[in-house]
């Protein structure tokens, strides 16, 4: 699963992101990097049941609802590779407002605007 996980992780997050994560790894967090590459990317994200777009949408909803803003930003950047559109992201945030709360959605809008502006500038 490790090879499949790394391939999927690179396809979703991009080589530059994965290379930075690996380069920044040390003996303390290397087992964590192995875990997420194998479990998240190899076992979950690599399943063929849902396309990457759907996984991206679900992941963003969960991360927004839980307030994991750095991860939200990372997965917003990944939408360029997963096929989730900005309209999809807006719909995610509307769902978050109703099911997880307006404050979470309000912050998600700010994070999305900032990330999309950064992406547009590149």
From TrEMBL:
<protein>
    <submittedName>
        <fullName>4-carboxymuconolactone decarboxylase</fullName>
    </submittedName>
</protein>
<dbReference type="GO" id="GO:0051920">
    <property type="term" value="F:peroxiredoxin activity"/>
</dbReference>
<dbReference type="InterPro" id="IPR052512">
    <property type="entry name" value="4CMD/NDH-1_regulator"/>
</dbReference>
<dbReference type="InterPro" id="IPR012788">
    <property type="entry name" value="Decarb_PcaC"/>
</dbReference>
<dbReference type="Pfam" id="PF02627">
    <property type="entry name" value="CMD"/>
</dbReference>
<feature type="domain" description="Carboxymuconolactone decarboxylase-like">
    <location>
        <begin position="32"/>
        <end position="114"/>
    </location>
</feature>
<dbReference type="InterPro" id="IPR003779">
    <property type="entry name" value="CMD-like"/>
</dbReference>
<dbReference type="InterPro" id="IPR029032">
    <property type="entry name" value="AhpD-like"/>
</dbReference>
